[in-house]
Design brief:
The chain has helices at about 5-15, 65-70, 75-85; strands at about 25-30, 40, 50-55, 90-95, 110-115. It is elongated, with a radius of gyration of 20 Å. With about 120 residues, the chain is α+β, with helices and mostly antiparallel strands. The relative contact order is 0.11. It is built from three helices and five strands. The model is unreliable at about 95-105 (pLDDT under 50). It is about 25% helix and about 15% strand. The protein folds into two domains: about 5-55, no CATH class; about 65-115, no CATH class.
C-alpha cells in the first residue's frame, strides 16, 4: 500500500473515531465500530513511514483444559500455569515472534514459558 493510501485510511479511521491524525498528532489508537477490532496507526515523525495495524478480536477463547485435551499442553504444564496465574506470578511466553503480548496464542506447541523466581534482596556493602 502506498504511503498516501495508508495516510488516507488513517484519516478516515480517525474521523470515524471522532479525532484527527497528522504530523502534530502522529499516534492513533482506537476500536473500530464495525467489529470491535483494535486499530493502531503511527505517522512520521514517530516512524519513518506511515504504518498501521488492525488486531481482530478473538473469535473463540480456549482454556488450558482445551489445550490439554488436544494434546498440545502437558497436564503438568497446565497445573504449573494455573498455579502461576493464581499466585499472580509474571509469565513470559516466548518462541513465536509474530504474536504480540496482547494476543492469545493459537496453540502452545513450540512455546517456551518462563516465570522469574523471586530475587534475594541486594547485599549492602
Amino acid at each position: 500500500m502506498a504511503a498516501a493510501q495508508a495516510e488516507s485510511l488513517m484519516a478516515t479511521v480517525a474521523a470515524t473515531l471522532g479525532t484527527t491524525v497528522g504530523r502534530d498528532s502522529p499516534i492513533l489508537e482506537g476500536e473500530l465500530p464495525l467489529d470491535g477490532s483494535r486499530f493502531q496507526a503511527l505517522l512520521p515523525p514517530v516512524v519513518s513511514a506511515p504504518v498501521f495495524a488492525i488486531r481482530r478480536r478473538a473469535s473463540a477463547l480456549f482454556d488450558l483444559d482445551h489445550y490439554v485435551d488436544a494434546g498440545v499442553l502437558r497436564p503438568s504444564w497446565r497445573a504449573a500455569l494455573a498455579e502461576a496465574v493464581a499466585t499472580r506470578r509474571n509469565i513470559l511466553p516466548g518462541g513465536l515472534a509474530t504474536v504480540h503480548a496482547t494476543a492469545r496464542a493459537p496453540g502452545w506447541r513450540g512455546w517456551s514459558i518462563w516465570w522469574p523466581r523471586p530475587r534475594p534482596p541486594p547485599c549492602s556493602a
